[in-house]
Design a protein that fits this description.
TIM Barrel, 8-stranded parallel β-sheet, alpha/beta
């Protein structure tokens, strides 16, 4: 069987699998590989670098891809959205801020507007502002998110709250079982990050990818300390889920002390990044790490996830 959902119909894709636009990880090569395999690849625009985003679209070549931004980066660099829309992306995903100033321009350009939300209120507001797709992100997700609801409870609640607007499930989804479960909860597909971080095409340190294959979900935690040491002004209710390491052991829960020692600690941290030392440098990852055992081509990840979900759903449909 093949899985057809409002997501696959909307984009004309084979599998209801979308690459999370992870900053510094989801480059053009990875986005193109996911799209070529039948999913939808999103380039991680992150905090915004026009030249980098343009370069990644070029690397994606003729594959139909999209792009994602942390919303306040567009407020600081309005030209960034114009440059991205000039590349005719299939979709633009906005996360963590007010979409109001940008929704109209994105939709007028013919791109699908995807909005990532962590609450029912946020999902309803995004739909009212014109979102075409909602990503319901549970607290299990790697990278930035909230410490609020889990994917299992959030997804069906958002599905019910937004009516006919398709919903993607996000948070600890690493294989076909997660995709099948999301579809059974009413989602039209999944947004996958950590599993694609551990892919051959992903950007980022090889040491980080290796760490992903070694760690377990129990080793992750939500924390603000990596934003503090990077001097990134994230609102306190948004934390980053990462693999615990020596840096978190020293500073997690001692944020005020880190801020007081920031000059020294930032130098130490930058040295760790330069040395690719994941005992100190951040490796953002979700709780689905237990299912990430090896670094694979993105095409293999997409195909294996889709095939496993298809078999599980077919098996379930044939039960008496």
């Amino acid at each position: 069987m093949t899985i057809s959902t409002p997501l696959t119909e909307m984009f004309g894709i084979d599998h209801p699998i979308v690459l999370a636009p992870m900053g510094g990880v989801s480059g053009g090569a990875l986005a193109a590989a996911v799209s070529a395999a039948g999913g939808l690849g999103l380039i991680g625009g992150g905090y915004g670098d026009q030249d980098w985003v343009a370069e990644q679209f070029d690397l994606a070549g003729n594959q139909r891809t999209g792009v994602g931004f942390i919303t306040w980066s567009l407020a600081e660099q309005p030209e960034l959205l114009d440059e991205a829309l000039a590349k005719e992306p299939a979709a633009v995903m906005l996360s963590f801020g007010d979409i109001t100033p940008f929704a109209g321009k994105i939709k007028a350009a013919g791109a699908t507007l995807i909005c990532q939300e962590q609450t029912l209120e946020g999902a309803r507001r995004a739909v009212a502002e014109g979102a075409d797709i909602i990503v319901a992100q549970g607290t299990e997700a790697g990278g930035h998110g909230s410490s609020g609801r889990t994917t299992l409870s959030l997804v069906p609640a958002v599905v019910d709250a937004v009516g006919n607007t398709p919903v993607l499930a996000a948070g600890a989804i690493s294989d076909g079982r997660g995709l099948a479960a999301a579809l059974m909860l009413g989602a039209a597909g999944v947004l996958v990050g950590t599993r694609f971080f551990a892919s051959q095409e992903a950007l980022g340190m090889d040491a980080a990818k290796k760490r992903l294959t070694e760690a377990a979900g129990d080793e992750t935690l939500r924390t603000r300390i990596f934003d503090i040491v990077h001097d990134l002004p994230w609102p306190e209710h948004f934390t980053g889920r990462a693999i615990a390491n020596q840096f978190t052991e020293v500073w997690h829960g001692r944020e005020a002390g880190l801020e007081a020692a920031l000059d020294i600690e930032r130098r130490h941290y930058q040295m760790a990044v330069a040395d690719m030392n994941t005992d100190a440098a951040v490796v953002f990852a979700g709780e689905g790490l237990d299912l990430v055992e090896t670094v694979l081509p993105a095409s293999v990840i997409v195909e294996s996830m889709a095939r496993e979900a298809e078999k599980l759903l077919d098996k379930g449909a044939r039960r008496n």
